[in-house]
Amino acid sequence: MSSSSIEYQKKELPLKIQKIGLGLFIAGLIIVILGYMVNPDRSAYNNIIAFTFLTSIAVGSLFFVAIEFLSGAVWSTPFRRVGEFLSALIIVLPLLFIPLLFNVDKVFHWTHPEPADKILIGKAPYLNVTFFIVRIVVFFLLWLLFYYLITRNSRKQDLSKDSGLTSRNVKISAVFMPVFAITITFTAIDWLMSLEPHWFSTIFGIYYFSGTVLAALAAATIFIILLDKKGFFVKGIHTDSYYSLGALLFAFTNFWAYIAFSQFLLIWYANLPEETFWFLARWDGGWKYASIGLIIIQFLVPYMGLLSQPSKMNPKRLLIMSGVLLFAHYYDLYWLVMPNYEKGSVPFGWIELGFPILIAGLVITVFYYKSKNENLVPIGDPKLKRGIDFRL
Amino acid sequence: MMSEKILYSLNAIFDTPDEISHAAEKIAEKGYKKFDVHTPYPVHGMDDAMRLAPSKLGYVALIFGLSGTLGALLSLWWVSAIDYPIVIGGKPLFSFPAYIPVMFEVTVLSASIATVLAMLFVFFKFPNNSHPLHGTGYMKKVSSDKYGISIQADDPKFNEEEIRKLFESLHASEIDLIFWDNEELNHKNKILEPKFLLFLLAAAVITSGTAYFSLNKLMFMVPFNWMMEQQKQNAQQKSLIFDDGFGMRQPVAGTVARGYMPYEFKGQPDLAGEKLVNPVPISKESLKIGQQKYDTFCSPCHGYHAEGDSRLRGQYPNPPTLHSDKVRKWSDGRIFAVLTDGQNIMPSYSTQLTVDEKWAVINYVRALQRALNAKESDLQ
């Protein structure tokens, strides 16, 4: 099975895409800057949602690329580059977390605890501004390092067709796994859980991880379906590969529900005031409907939509469900973050729209530039031919 | 007529998986419905080539899974909110979140069991394990290194000549006919014979009837009911003999339980010190018991060496040392009074220590005191 038998003609994405991406990015940026001028507090909270959301897609995509190498998966090789391109978003992450570092005192209560607050004084060795900045910078550099190592080998392989590069990537991916687990857990604790520093939940890291994987998978699925429609892949993507993507989406939908419910059940059952107040804030006034909406949008709809076998194979339905899940992850993060800004009612206005538009623009622009400079299909990969011929 | 065998199918053998996939595609294309492919291992893409409809097994899983969910919900609701309402942990009687794990488990359990059973009994027709292809040369080949296809004679389009031609055009290496085994065809399942079913029914009626009669009727007939109606006082029953109606009687005033020694010096520790004498001799055994009891009950506050060095780290006030002149000069009886009545914040240890154990502990405390204030003569 020599890879030379695959004929790949590099196709460029239409220039229109670049214009759309840049347009969205600039429009979003204007709204965000206006938002920061009008209401810096509210914008800072939205900024956290945006940062964690983009981290989900970027680092989650790198996790998927690494998982493919580590498990020796064949079915996903033809469209592995989509994951690699999306993980390039790691490079632009500072754009979203650096503005926040100047606003930490606006959103994080632990930056200025009352002297009588023994709990926060006790947590100060971990929750202090210096260590917080050190952590995010170290995490970012680690992500960047592994992104660079893995994609560099993958790029080199396009020319050299050296199968040794695959086994080198397997080793890098193995090292990346624990790094990913630790960094993603502490990102969740630092940026989401510490918004309410008196509250704690030991399952919180996994909760964010489950959303991360869902968002990364959904984003990749959307790109794969749209690109496949325009014929960007060699021989197209077979329904069996779509089935595998759908099955993964379905599995992680259930995983998210399982983790979310586990977190809720234990707190509900134990009924300790120092834990329950977090859920009570999300059941207060308008937030009650937002909480019920979260169950519907991130579990019931995708569960029903992806349950049957034909729906996992149908690209149209898969596209809709991926869109729903991507939106659901943003919704989920909004549900985690915003009750800290406003209790009793759900704040929604033009300030909330700035960051999603900015992110959409960023994702499209980064993807466009990556696909312009690199092949969309890893033509040097020894698994490619088997991947194209993959049948369940 | 012996030779009149009923045709089951026309079979063809192919040598490669590509040929069999191609053949299956062509045969499905021609509109044959009742045909099957036999290969030594699963050939990918065969379902598509044969144009098989998706399996119905998924619906079994769905229906039984949903009924499991619903059944679990209903039974939990009925048990905890209707039939036996108990408030648990301050939660409402119908507390849905607590039911979700149970509903989930029952869903998985009923869906998986139903799927396996439906697969065996409905789709594989389990108790029937005969098939006309069993034991044929065809089956031997396709279960080792050949790929076979068999078109059944009851297919509406079945025509032997046409199919032979089709197989030949597909380059089949062998073509042959398979007939029903007459013996197998006439074989009836004895389990479903009326006689056997009747026997089963009779056996069921007799065993359940006997069990019902002996447990619900026979036990209440003379003489078996004699065991139940005895002339005796049952627990919590009103007494017919005593006027006050109590079945349980008080012991005679002044009765003392065996092995129990009343303590007469309550609140008078000094009197106890004068009157009480240690009855337990100092021996290796009694010191051992004393040490064990001291280490368990006394040492947490008094310390292992009775110096008042508590292990409680200030959570409870430290007691004074037992090596003071005051305690050294106390008689054994005086210490016994402290162990029995307690002193200051020290409670009574009567529930933890028996009388003899208290004396043994006192002997051990004496040994500790001696160890810190040893005399010249002790060294010899």
SSE layout and pairing:
The complex is a heterodimer of chains A (392) and B (380).
Chain A: H1 15-38, H2 40-71, H3 80-87, H4 94-101, H5 104-107, H6 118-123, H7 129-160, H8 164-191, H9 204-229, H10 239-270, H11 273-281, H12 287-306, H13 309-313, H14 315-337, H15 350-373, H16 384-388
Helix pairs in contact in A: 1-2, 1-15, 2-3, 2-4, 2-7, 2-8, 2-9, 2-14, 2-15, 7-8, 8-9, 9-10, 9-14, 10-12, 10-14, 12-14
Chain B: E1 7-14, H1 17-29, E2 35-38, H2 46-50, H3 57-83, H4 96-123, H5 137-142, E3 147-152, H6 160-169, E4 174-179, H7 182-186, H8 194-216, H9 269-275, H10 284-302, H11 325-329, H12 332-341, H13 355-372
Antiparallel strand pairs in B: 1-3, 1-4, 2-3
Helix pairs in contact in B: 3-4, 9-12, 10-13, 12-13
- Note the overall shape of chain B: elongated
Oligomer: heterodimer
Number of E-state strands of chain A: 0
Poorly predicted regions of chain A: none
Overall pLDDT level of chain B: 87
The coarse silhouette of chain A is globular
Rg of chain A, rounded, reads 21 Å
The number of distinct β-strands of chain B equals 4
Largest sheet of chain B: 4 strands, antiparallel
Structural class of chain B: alpha+beta
> How many domains make up the coordinates of chain A?
1
Beta content of chain A comes to under 5%
Helix-strand topology string of chain B: EHEHHHHEHEHHHHHHH
**Helix coverage percent of residues of chain A?**
over 70%
Kindly name the structural category of chain A.
mainly alpha
Distance between the termini of chain B: 118 Å
Our measurement of the CA-to-CA distance between the termini of chain A, rounded to an integer number of angstroms, reads: 20 Å
Spans of chain B of at least 5 consecutive residues whose pLDDT stays below 50 are none
Main sheet specs of chain A: none
Number of helices of chain A: 16
Instruction: Output the radius of gyration of chain B.
Output: 45 Å
